[in-house]
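User: Run a structure prediction on this.
Assistant: Running it now.
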Amino acid sequence: MPTTLLAFLGACTLVAASPGPSTVLIIKQSMHSRRSGFLTVLGNETGVFIWGVVAAFGLTALLTASEIAYDVMRIVGAVVLVGFGIQALRQARRAKGTPEEDAEEAWAGPQKSGWASYRGGLLLNLANPKAAVFAMSFLPQFVPEGAPHLPAMVGLAALWAVYEVGYYGLYVWFVGRMKSVLSRAGVRRRLEQVSGGVLLLLGVRMALDG
């Protein structure tokens, strides 16, 4: 069991370290505040746990078996990503030309509520069919031989989510430490443009990835 858990946590680290839409959104929200970033992390990891439980009950197989269901989720996920991307680009545009002394006030205006940040992380994860398929293929590999399948899968899903809260929490902390640099209007606007562009491209890619 200890060996299995170490291997599982190592695999979780590699998964979390792979850049993706969730990473971009977490960093983007962390630029507004640590609270917003951390709540985005919690929303994302709630999605991770939900997909893990769905996989534990074998319901993810229905998604992979139905091409129509998968395509619907893929399009919904693409729309969500494009929406986040456009939102970031519009926010950067609104702040363009803002005097340096008014930068903090300009960025404070469009900040999201805590619930909106949590919901954004959750929605981004749940709208990604690849996250569901990955959970179905990832978790069973670490179920110990002879262990009850359902409890073990649910337990691994919970451990996965909790571990990633800690991992992505480091991102939130680091962005917070860089606040003095990121609070500069030009730097923050450029980061919003980059994150918005990345989310937009990921959404287009998901839509085209049949």
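Confidence is low (pLDDT under 50) at residues 106-110.
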